[in-house]
Design goal:
Elements lengths: L12 H8 L3 H7 L8 H14 L5 H8 L4 E6 L5 H17 L2 E6 L4 H13 L4 E4 L6 H10 L2 E5 L7 E5 L1 H14 L4 E7 L4 H16 L3 E7 L4 H14 L5 E4 L2 H13 L9 E6 L12 E4 L2 H14 L7 E4 L3 E2 L5
Parallel strand pairs: 1-2, 1-3, 3-4, 4-5, 5-11, 6-7, 6-8, 8-9, 9-10
Antiparallel strand pairs: 10-12
Helix pairs in contact: 1-2, 1-3, 2-3, 5-12, 6-7, 8-9, 10-11
Amino acid sequence: MNDRHTPPRYASAAEVARLAGVSRSAVSRAFTPGASISETTRKRVMQAAQALGYQVNDLARALLNQHSRLVGLVVTDPAAGFRAHLVAALTQALVRRGSVPVVINTGRTEAEMLAAHQALAGYRAEATVLLSGSPPASFLDLARRTGQKLVVVGRSEPGAAHVLTDNQAAAREAAQHFIGLGCLRLGLAGSASGTPNIVEREQAFLAHAHALGAEVWLARGADADYAGGQRAAQALLAQCPALQGVFCVNDLIACGLMDELRMQGLRVPQDVAVIGFDDIPEAAWASYRLTTFRQDPALLAAEIVRLLDTAHGTGPRAIRLRAPLILRESA
C-alpha cells in the first residue's frame, strides 16, 4: 500500500505493448487520431490499456510537439460575482473542446500577471485567456514571441483577440429607462477598481443621462462588490437624499446598495429604482428581483472558444456582444 509520500505509478506504453503483443510504435499510433493502424491491432492495444489503467502522457507529448492542450485562464478573484460563472462556463466549454483548462488566480500587478503567463509558456500552453485586469506590454510581447494564442476579455489590446460587451449601449439604455420612469435625480454606483468594463459603463451613463436632462451624482466603493455597493449607497444618499434611481455597474454592487437603501428606510422601487449589470443568479432572488443587463456566461465562453479556434486563421479577431435588459421589479 502506497503512503501519501509515494508518487503514483502510471502504466507505461511499453507495458501496454508487451501485454498487447505489439510494438511500442503501434501503441502510439493507436492513440493518435488518423494514424495508420489496423482495427484489430487498435482493439488489442485498447484492451491492454484498459486492463493496465494506461493514460496517454500529454505532458510528454507536449514536450515533443512543442505545444500542449493546456489553456490558461488568468483571472483576479475568480470566485467573485460574474467572473465565477464565466470561469465555470469556460472551463466546461474548453473540456468539451478537448482542452485542459488551468485557472491561475493572479493579482493585478504587472509582475504577478507576467509570472502567470511565464508559467503557462513553460508548460507549452496552447493559449492564454485573460479574464480580468490589464495585461502589461511584457505579457503581450511574450505571447507574440512564443506564438501562443492570446484572448483578452473585456478590453481591446493590440496583437490579441478580444471579446467585448457593448457596455456603452447598455448604459445609455439604462439612462433612457430611468427617464421613461420619470426619474430625473439619478445616482451612479461605480467602483474605484477602474476596470475597462466599469469605466465604459460609468462614462456612457453619465454622458447620456446628462444629455437627457437628468442630474447625476456619482459614488464609488473601493471594489466592485457587495460592500462597495453599501458604501456607494451611503455616499449617494449623503449627496442627494431625494434620489429617484441608481444605475449600478454590476449586480454585486446593486445587491449591497439595495440592502443599504432598505436599512435607511427607503423602498425599492417605490422610492428608488435600481438597475444592475450582469444578471448573476442572485439578481433573480426574491430579496432583489433586480432589473439588470444580462451577460450570458455560456455565450461568452462559446465566443472565446471560437476565437481560440481561429486565432491564427481567417476568423474574427474581435467580438462584441450585446447585453439585453432583463426587466424585474427593482425598476
